[in-house]
Design brief:
Layout: E1 2-7, H1 9-16, H2 22-29, E2 36-40, H3 43-56, H4 62-78, E3 80-83, H5 87-99, H6 104-120, E4 126-131, H7 135-143, E5 148-149
Parallel strand pairs: 1-2, 1-4, 2-3, 4-5
Helix pairs in contact: 1-2, 3-4, 5-6
Length: 155
């Protein structure tokens, strides 16, 4: 069985900044587990925003931000499979944001996850899970048929 995880930004940030759920995220993202890790292209922007906010609030230093960004860039280049933002993804995200109470970037994350689920539909030996710590987003993801996990359930 191939374990495939789509990580939204709220889940992925736990790999770089320790908080509730970080241990579980560390476990599934370690290269030794050989899991397939998928993220949306916009995650880069959201991660940089989260790190900048944490620095402004005094929770992490500039030196730590720089180290996290280097580590993140390496993972983007070498470990994560990235869903690119294109016209069809924008249309799906627009449909989702009109149908459900989602923020714009959350709808892009969800549209990206749905796109991957559709692509994996014919594969028998793949376990696919959407990972987020945003309960509203997880509830909508469940409605759309995604299997979901909240890393905060693994403190």
């Amino acid at each position: 069985m191939v374990n495939t995880y789509f990580l939204d930004t709220s889940a992925l940030v736990k790999r770089y900044v320790y908080e509730t759920g970080s241990d579980w995220i560390q476990l599934i993202t370690t290269p030794q587990e050989s899991n397939t890790l998928i993220i949306a292209r916009i995650t880069w922007v959201e991660m940089l925003s989260a790190l900048a906010r944490l620095q402004r609030e005094g929770n992490i230093s500039q030196k730590n931000v720089e180290a996290f960004i280097k580590t993140l860039q390496y993972a983007f280049d070498m470990q994560y499979q990235i869903v690119e933002f294109d016209a069809s993804l924008a249309e799906e995200a627009g449909r989702l944001v009109q149908q459900y109470p989602l923020r714009a970037y959350d709808s892009v994350q969800l549209a990206s996850a749905i796109k991957i689920q559709t692509a994996l539909a014919g594969f028998q030996n793949v376990s696919y899970t959407f990972v987020s710590d945003d309960n509203r987003l997880l509830n909508v993801a469940k409605i759309t048929g995604l299997s979901v996990i909240n890393p905060n359930d693994f403190p």
